[in-house]
Design a protein that fits this description.
- It comes from marine sediment metagenome.
- Helix content is about 10%, strand content about 30%.
- With about 450 residues, the chain is of the alpha+beta class.
- The chain has 4 domains: about 1-35, no CATH class; about 35-145, Immunoglobulins (Immunoglobulin-like, Sandwich); about 145-395, 3-Layer(aba) Sandwich (Rossmann fold), CATH 3.40.50.880; about 415-450, no CATH class.
- A 7-stranded mixed beta sheet has the order 10-9-11-14-21-20-19. Strands 3, 4, 5, 7 and 8 form a 5-stranded antiparallel beta sheet that branches. Strands 1-2-6 form a 3-stranded antiparallel beta sheet, with no helix packed on it.
C-alpha cells in the first residue's frame, strides 16, 4: 500500500500501473492487509567505501524505516556475510537503533571483512514485526584480492633506492611487502611509461614525471606532435580509473601547462609555475595553512586532529613547492567537475597544496610538491600524516565497486563488456542455482563496447 501512495518507494510498480492507465486500463488496488502494529523495513543496503578488499575491513550501511503507527525502540539490525561455494554465513555484531518514530528512517553502519576475494553477499535484517517479507535486504559484492597501484617514478636514483621519488610513497602503501594491507604498488621508471597498460591497475600515480612520450603524426595535413599515452590515460580516468599526481624538479612546464592541462579539459587540474623555494640553509619553511584544509576523505587526518584540538600541520615543513595558477584554470569539459582546493600553503599568496577534481567517472588528486623528501620532510613525519594521506588518496581515487550488481525487484541489472568480449558466451547463475538452470545471455553492441542485461 505504501508503495502506491504519492512519494512511495515503489517507483517501478507505479510506472507499470501508469503504463496500464495510458492504455485505458482501469487499475484498482484492494487492500486486504490487516493493520500492522509494528512494521519495520530495510529500505536500502549499500557499500560505504568505494570497494571491498579481501582481509581488509570495509563498511556497509543499511537504512531502516518505521512504517508502523507507533514508535519502535531498541531496533536490532543483524548483519551477516556469505562467501564461498557453500555461502556459509558469518554473523557480525548487531547494530542497535535506539528509537524510530513513525515514518522515520535511520542509517546504521557495519564493518565487514571477507576472508578471500570473489563474490560475496552481505545481508541486513530486522525482526519481530507483522510484515516479515521486507525485513531483509541483500548486497552483492565483488571482493578484490588487492588494490593495484601503478607508481611511475620520474626521479630514479640507481645507487640509493631510498632516494627514489617513489620510495616513501610505495612504502606507505605496502610497508611489510606482499600486499599485506590490501594494496599492491608496482613501481616503474617514467622511461618505461610507453609500455604501461593502465587498465590493469586501479590507480595510477605519477611522481615527478617530466612528460609523456610523443609521436609525430605525419599523416595529418600538417604534421603535429601528439601524446598517445596521455590519451590512453585520459580514457582510463574518464572510465573510472584513479590518478594521483605529485610534482617535482623534473616536471616539464610546457607539457603540464599544455596537453596535460589542456585549458582546463585535461587531467592536470591547474596550470603551474616554476617551483618556489627557500634558499639552502634557511631556517624558514612553508607550511600548510590550518584554516585552509577542507573536509574531505583525503585530508581527514588533518581535520580529525584539528577537531581534537591538535594542529598536526605544524609537524610538516616544505622547503619547495610548485605554485599553481588558479586564475588560468580554463573551462572543464563536459563530464568533469570543478577543482576543489583541499589544502593551501601558508603565506600571502595561499597557493594550493592539494587539489581534487572529478574527471568523467574517475577522480584526480594532485599534490604540488614531491612525494619524496627532496622538497619537504613530510614522509618523515613521526605522527604518520604522510602515510595516512597517501593511503586515503588511493582509497578516494581507486576504481570503485562495479555498478549494478544489486537491484530491487523489477529493476534491470546491466553489465558493460569490452569489445573483445562481445562474442563470449555468457551464462548467469541465479540465487537458486543449482535448483534452477543456468540462464544464457546475449550481449548487445553499443558503439565500441557491449552490454548484457
Amino acid at each position: 500500500r505504501l508503495d502506491l501512495l504519492p512519494g512511495g518507494k515503489g517507483g517501478t510498480l507505479q510506472k507499470q500501473f501508469e503504463t496500464l492507465r495510458k492504455h485505458q486500463v482501469d487499475v484498482r488496488v484492494l487492500d486486504y492487509g490487516r493493520p500492522a502494529s509494528r512494521n519495520l523495513t530495510i529500505t536500502s543496503i549499500e557499500l560505504v567505501d568505494r570497494f571491498a578488499v579481501a582481509k581488509a575491513p570495509f563498511r556497509v550501511a543499511a537504512t531502516v524505516r518505521n512504517n508502523g503507527p507507533g514508535n519502535a525502540e531498541n531496533v536490532e539490525v543483524a548483519f551477516e556475510v556469505r562467501q564461498g561455494a557453500r555461502k556459509q554465513a558469518a554473523h557480525l555484531p548487531v547494530q542497535v537503533i535506539d528509537l524510530l518514530e513513525p515514518g522515520q528512517a535511520k542509517r546504521v553502519v557495519a564493518e565487514v571483512t571477507c576472508p578471500s576475494a570473489g563474490s560475496a553477499v552481505v545481508s541486513a535484517a530486522v525482526g519481530g514485526d507483522d510484515l516479515p517479507p521486507d525485513n531483509q535486504a541483500d548486497l552483492a559484492l565483488a571482493v578484490r584480492n588487492v588494490v593495484t597501484v601503478l607508481v611511475v617514478d620520474g626521479n630514479v636514483n640507481l645507487t640509493d633506492p631510498t632516494e627514489n621519488e617513489s620510495f616513501f610513497f610505495a612504502l606507505s602503501l605496502d610497508p611489510l611487502g606482499g600486499a599485506s594491507y590490501g594494496v599492491r604498488p608496482e613501481v616503474i621508471s617514467s622511461d618505461n611509461l610507453g609500455g604501461a597498460v593502465f587498465e590493469d591497475y586501479d590507480v595510477v600515480a605519477l611522481l615527478d614525471v617530466p612528460d609523456f612520450p610523443i609521436h609525430v603524426d605525419a599523416a595529418a595535413t600538417q604534421p603535429k606532435v601528439v601524446h598517445p599515452r596521455l590519451k590512453m590515460l585520459e580514457d582510463y580516468v574518464r572510465g573510472g580509473g584513479g590518478l594521483i599526481i605529485f610534482t617535482g624538479p623534473r616536471i616539464n612546464l610546457d607539457f603540464y601547462n599544455g596537453p596535460f592541462h589542456d585549458g582546463g579539459r585535461g587531467l592536470s587540474p591547474l596550470r603551474v609555475k616554476p617551483h618556489l623555494g627557500r634558499r639552502v640553509g634557511s631556517r624558514k619553511f612553508f607550511r600548510l595553512a590550518p584554516g585552509s584544509i577542507a573536509s574531505h576523505p583525503v585530508t581527514q587526518v588533518f581535520t580529525t586532529s584539528a577537531a581534537e584540538g591538535v594542529d598536526v600541520t605544524s609537524l610538516v615543513r616544505f622547503s619547495t613547492f610548485t605554485p599553481a595558477d588558479e586564475v588560468a584554470t580554463g573551462v572543464p569539459e563536459a563530464g568533469t567537475r570543478g577543482v576543489q582546493i583541499l589544502a593551501r600553503f601558508a603565506g600571502p599568496d595561499s597557493f594550493p597544496a592539494l587539489v581534487a577534481r572529478r574527471y568523467g567517472k574517475g577522480n584526480v588528486v594532485m599534490v604540488y610538491t614531491t612525494a619524496s623528501k627532496r622538497w619537504n620532510d613530510w614522509p618523515a613525519d613521526e605522527v604518520g600524516t604522510y602515510a595516512k594521506v597517501v593511503n586515503d588518496m588511493v582509497q578516494h581515487v581507486a576504481r570503485p565497486q562495479p555498478e549494478a550488481l544489486t537491484a530491487r525487484v523489477g529493476e534491470t541489472i546491466v553489465h558493460a563488456l569490452d569489445e573483445d568480449l562481445l562474442d563470449a558466451k555468457v551464462m548467469l547463475k541465479t540465487p537458486r542455482y543449482p535448483a534452477d538452470d543456468l540462464v544464457s545471455l546475449v550481449a548487445t553492441r553499443e558503439g565500441s563496447r557491449g552490454r548484457i542485461t
